[in-house]
C-alpha cells in the first residue's frame, strides 16, 4: 500500500512547479535542496505518477499529471491556509502566499501602492511579484508561476479572464526644448512623423505601437529600438527623437536628471487597457480575488461588474 502524502509535500511540489527549479524553490522556502527533492519523489511515489519532466539541463517542467495536480493542490493549500480566517471570522487572519505577475514598466509606479494597501488589509498574506514584459507575464500566468497579474491586455488571448482597471491613451514625449512644447493644443501625430522615432521594443508592446502608426496612415522612422521604458525616456530627453508611451509618470525628469515634455495627441487612436488578469482554466484563489479588489480600489474604477459573472471582453 502506498504511503499517504502530506501537506508539506504538496507545498514543496507547488513551490518547485512555480519556480521550475529545485534550487530556486529551496532558496525561497529556506530548506535544503535534498529535503525538497526527497519530498517531491515521495509525493510521486504516493500518487503513483511522475509529476515533473526532467531535461538534460536540469530544468523541470510539469508533466500532464503534474499540471492537473498543481491547479488542485493550490486550491487545497489555500483552503488549509484560510482555516484560521474562517474560524476567527476575520479576513486579517488570512494566510498563505500570493504571487502576482506585473508588467515591468508598471512595477515601480504601481506595485508599491498596491502592496501597501494589500498588506494593511491582509497582513499575514505573503505577496511576491514577478516582473516581466507582456509576454513573460502572460507565460507566468498561463503556467501557474503566478496567481494573478496586473498588466496591459495586449497579447492576452481568450484563455484569460480580465477585469478592466482603466483605459490608458498613448501620449507623445519629446525633449523639453522641442518646438512643439510651445503649443497649447493636442499634437497631431503627423507633425512628428518625419522625426526619428524611439520605439519601446518589447513583445506585444512593439506591435501595439506599430499598429498605432498604421491606424494613422503613417510610416515612422524607427531610429532606435530599446527594451527599457526609462531608457526610452532618457533618449528622448537627450533630443535623439520622440516616442509614444502610455504610462504617464507624475514628473518630467529621467533617471539621469534630464527633463522631457509630455504632450497629448490629437489623433483618435486606440487606448490600451490596464487589467487584472486570471487564467481562464482555473478558478482564481480567494487571495487573487482580494488582490483584484484592492487594485480596483487603489488604481481604478469602482462598481465594475464581477468578471466571473459576465465576460468583459
UniProtKB/TrEMBL annotation:
Example GO CC term: the record gives: protein-DNA complex
Keywords from the named record: DNA-binding, Transcription, Transcription regulation
- InterPro entries named among the record's database cross-references: LysR_HTH_N, LysR_subst-bd, WH-like_DNA-bd_sf, WH_DNA-bd_sf
The chain positions of domain HTH lysR-type read 5-63
GO MF, one example: DNA-binding transcription factor activity
Q: Which Pfam families match?
A: HTH_1, LysR_substrate
Highest taxon of source: Bacteria
Name the protein family. Belongs to the LysR transcriptional regulatory family.
What PANTHER family does this protein map onto? HCA OPERON TRANSCRIPTIONAL ACTIVATOR HCAR (PTHR30346:SF0), TRANSCRIPTIONAL DUAL REGULATOR HCAR-RELATED (PTHR30346)
Q: What is this protein called?
A: Transcriptional regulator, LysR family
Amino acid at each position: 500500500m502506498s504511503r499517504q502524502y502530506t501537506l508539506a509535500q504538496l507545498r514543496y511540489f507547488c513551490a518547485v512547479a512555480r519556480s521550475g527549479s529545485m534550487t530556486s524553490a529551496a532558496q525561497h522556502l529556506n530548506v535544503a535542496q535534498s529535503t525538497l527533492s526527497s519530498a517531491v519523489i515521495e509525493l510521486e511515489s504516493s500518487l503513483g505518477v511522475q509529476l515533473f519532466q526532467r531535461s538534460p539541463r536540469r530544468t523541470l517542467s510539469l508533466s500532464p499529471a503534474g499540471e492537473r495536480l498543481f491547479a488542485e493542490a493550490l486550491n487545497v493549500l489555500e483552503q488549509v491556509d484560510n482555516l484560521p480566517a474562517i474560524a476567527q471570522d476575520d479576513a486579517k487572519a488570512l494566510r498563505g502566499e500570493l504571487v502576482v505577475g506585473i508588467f515591468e514598466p508598471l512595477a515601480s509606479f504601481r506595485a508599491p501602492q498596491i502592496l501597501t494597501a494589500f498588506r494593511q488589509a491582509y497582513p499575514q498574506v505573503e505577496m511576491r511579484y514577478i516582473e516581466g514584459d507582456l509576454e513573460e507575464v502572460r507565460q507566468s500566468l498561463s503556467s501557474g508561476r503566478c496567481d494573478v497579474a496586473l498588466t496591459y491586455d495586449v497579447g492576452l488571448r481568450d484563455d484569460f479572464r480580465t477585469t478592466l482597471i482603466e483605459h490608458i491613451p498613448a501620449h507623445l514625449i519629446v525633449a523639453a526644448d522641442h518646438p512643439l512644447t510651445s503649443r497649447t493644443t493636442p499634437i497631431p501625430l503627423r507633425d512628428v512623423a518625419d522625426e526619428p522615432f524611439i520605439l519601446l521594443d518589447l513583445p506585444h508592446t512593439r506591435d501595439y505601437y506599430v499598429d498605432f502608426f498604421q491606424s494613422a496612415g503613417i510610416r515612422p522612422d524607427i531610429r532606435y529600438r530599446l527594451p527599457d521604458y526609462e531608457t526610452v525616456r532618457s533618449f528622448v530627453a537627450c533630443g535623439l527623437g520622440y516616442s509614444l508611451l502610455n504610462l504617464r509618470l507624475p514628473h518630467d525628469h529621467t533617471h539621469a536628471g534630464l527633463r522631457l515634455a509630455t504632450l497629448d495627441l490629437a489623433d483618435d487612436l486606440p487606448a490600451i487597457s490596464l487589467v487584472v488578469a486570471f487564467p481562464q482554466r482555473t478558478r482564481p484563489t480567494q487571495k487573487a480575488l482580494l488582490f483584484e479588489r484592492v487594485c480596483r480600489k487603489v488604481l481604478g474604477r469602482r462598481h465594475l461588474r464581477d468578471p466571473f459573472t459576465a465576460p468583459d471582453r
